[in-house]
Amino acid sequence: MLVDFNSLPEDSRIWIYQSNRKFSDDEIFEFEKRLSEFLTQWTAHGDSLEAGFEIKYNRFIIIGLNQENASASGCSIDASVHFIQQLEKQFQVDLLDKMNVTFYTGEYITHKTLQDFKKMAKSKAISKKTVVFNNLVNTKAEYLENWEVPAEESWHARLF
């Protein structure tokens, strides 16, 4: 069952898919349509899942799931990953590679491989104060409070 992302409780589980590039307006329109269709029919063991989504900065797809009524099962999580893989293939975009880092360079959002990010840290092109996107957050509350943080406040700190 599709619900407005903002109406999901703060303890809702979330999944963040970062893109290796910015989405076009046409792609966002198509993603919103496809996400709405998928989440409307998303189930776990026959139970409808109460889920919502948002697309942030033309670069991130965030899916939230209210687990109070029904939790995602292995099969339903597999279905969501398969859905994301279909988007990747159709739009030639990388959404599942966790070995990439997205961060702010001034007011711009930059996407680099983990290796390149490490090199930038070593050469002091970025600092522990650089705001990164911590895509390892698990709940909506963590997403709202700890998603965009200085590198020193996330797992990225170990790279400095």
Protein traits:
160 residues; alpha+beta; 2 domains; two-stranded antiparallel sheet; 9 strands; ABC transporter ATPase
Describe the secondary-structure layout:
Blueprint: E1 13-18, H1 25-41, E2 43-44, E3 47-48, E4 50-56, E5 60-66, H2 74-91, E6 100-105, E7 108-113, H3 114-122, E8 131-133, H4 140-146, E9 148-150
Antiparallel strand pairs: 1-5, 2-3, 4-5, 6-7, 8-9
Summarize the structure.
The chain has 160 residues and is an alpha+beta fold. The protein has 4 helices and 9 strands, in the order βαββββαββαβαβ. The chain has 2 domains: 5-91; 100-159, no CATH class.
Give your account of this protein's structure.
The radius of gyration is 16 Å and the shape is globular. The chain starts with 12 loop residues before the first strand and ends in a 10-residue tail after the last strand. It has four helices and nine strands, in the order E-H-E-E-E-E-H-E-E-H-E-H-E. Helix content is 32%, strand content 26%. It has two domains: 5-91; 100-159, no CATH class. Strand 2 (43-44) and strand 3 form a beta hairpin. It is of the alpha+beta class. It has helices at residues 25-41, 74-91, 114-122, 140-146; strands at 13-18, 43-44, 47-48, 50-56, 60-66, 100-105, 108-113, 131-133, 148-150.
